[in-house]
Amino acid sequence: RGVDFFQPIKRFDKSRPMSVVFALDVSGSMTDEELVGLKSAMKSFINRLADYNSQFAIMTFAMDVKTVRTFTKRPDDLEKSFSKIRRDVNGLSTHAYDAIDDAVRLLDRKTPKTVGSRIPRKAVLVITDGFPVGDVVSPQTVIERANASEATIYSVILPSFSRLSATKRPLMTPFEASGLVDKTGGKSIYATDGSLEPIFNALAEEITSSYALAFYPSDAAQSAGNFREVRIESVNGFQVKQNRAGYRARP
After folding, report:
1. How do residues 57-112 score in pLDDT, each as one tens digit?
2. CATH number at residue 31
3. How many Cβ atoms from other residues are within 10 Å of residue 4's Cβ?
4. Domains of the chain: total
5. Phi then psi for 38, rounded to 5 degrees?
6. CB 130 within 8 A of CB 174
7. Inside any domain, residue 156
8. Exposed, middle or buried, 214 (CB in 10 Å: 0-12/13-18/19+)?
9. Distance, CA of 219 to CA of 211 (rounded, Å)
């Protein structure tokens, strides 16, 4: 069937509101050098989106999930918050799913449904070892909540964290295998031993380049509350990037 509404979100359309939560793994497996490089890359990411109608929050997680900085539009406030980030060298667990769940809840509470006539883009950017341990919330629950909130999850796996196979190619981590990134329309990237800034710049471009479409289902009344799978195809055979697999119908 056709669509009833289509809106391209251009890369340089700086009126598109955005809410982004950084969720940082500060467990003992992260090195001091990685933490320094990570802070620098995050600053570059924020500066790249500073001209957009955007707000950012910062969370850290290891044994505990902490909100280092709630949403702010001021880069200088975020700069001060970076200095508060410390490694948890004594942590015995890595609550990645709990942290993302908290991030989605924060997005729900603090992001308006619309800003002007625009629908805000909501994203969680996770930097983790890819090996969650000790979570209370299950990945499936986080996926459902993220999709209900229309939040997209992105992840960056740092080099010293990922296990390497004999061919030196990273193996899929449990975090990736959970489907949390794929099933919310996001992207997972393995960092290299070089600078993290190119990776964060690529993610910034990914987040700011998208499209929105809408249609009126004929049986909406009968399917309220159910998950409706959506598959987008081009009539001309072009490859289409789909942000999420579907949506949950509302009454």
Report:
1. 999 999 999 999 999 998 889 889 988 898 887 777 899 999 999 999 999 999 98
2. 3.40.50.410
3. 9
4. 1
5. -65, -45
6. yes
7. yes
8. exposed
9. 25
